[in-house]
Amino acid sequence: MTLDVREIEPAEIDLVLDYFLDATPEHLELMGVDPTRLPPRDEWRRRIKEDLARPVEQRRGLVVLWLRDGEPVGFSTCSDIVFGEHAKLHLHVLKPEDRNGGVGAPCVRRSAQIYLERLQLKRLFSEPNAFNVAPNRTLQKAGFTYVKTHMTVPGWINYHQPVTRWVMQR
């Protein structure tokens, strides 16, 4: 098995959109995603393409694609970027049958390195839903350190929920 982790190309954006817009209500709830906050496909695609066209220092987000043997298996997004300081990492495995298969930790580790380097970060946080065991285990295996569990709205598509905060420092 060969893993490749790299920044997403504009032609691959629909992988991210499909993941969220075609997800079951149960999967969205497990991630703490409020389906009413998901924008229409065309608007969301336009936003991501516009962001990809900006210099990295001015981006609102960064998306990294995970490939196993050349095929997309997952992706990571980085949001709440304060260039040179900190940002938030989010992690997603595309297909249910690939979840809990061991691809997450090495891909998250490599994604984190891309974010730390490209965005010149001192700290990289992640705040998965506290009840979603898989990403919490993955972050620990990838070398993130537990900070705390608390209530917050972890991202612009999420609702108020308990999250576990993890950090990786440069």
Can you offer a commentary on this structure?
This protein is of the alpha+beta class and 170 residues long. It has one domain (3-169): 3-Layer(aba) Sandwich (Aminopeptidase). The protein is 31% helix and 31% strand. It is built from five helices and seven strands; from the N terminus they run E-H-H-H-E-E-E-H-E-H-E-E. It has helices at residues 13-21, 25-31, 41-53, 104-118, 133-141, and strands at residues 3-7, 62-68, 71-82, 86-93, 123-126, 145-152, 161-169. The protein has a seven-stranded mixed β-sheet with strand order 1-2-3-4-5-7-6, covered by helices on one side. Helix 1 packs antiparallel against helix 3 and helix 4 (104-118) crosses helix 5 (133-141). The radius of gyration is 15 Å and the shape is globular. The relative contact order is 0.17. The mean pLDDT is 95.
Helical residue percent band: 25-40%
How many domains in all?
Answer: 1
What is the total tally of β strands? 7
Q: Describe the biggest sheet?
A: 7 strands, mixed
Proper CATH architecture = 3-Layer(aba) Sandwich
Helical stretch count? Answer: 5
The name CATH uses for the topology is Aminopeptidase
Highest-level CATH class? Alpha Beta
Assign an overall shape. Answer: globular
Query: What's the Cα radius of gyration?
Result: 15 Å
